[in-house]
Sequence to fold (65 residues):
Amino acid sequence: MPRLFRRRRDGRPDGPWICWGYTGTGERWSESTKQFDRKAAEAIARDIERRRASPADAAAHAATI
Fold:
């Protein structure tokens, strides 16, 4: 399950969901999912984590012909 959080303003959630994790070398990363719905954010976060886990596969997926 992806790690998600939302920033807070005046004690209430504000803004899009943000996912975060650690690289294989132990560096922390965070990236906005640009989603306000949690279920949609979870789907995007899974894709982001997949890209971060395997940069070579992410580059192959992003390549166009």
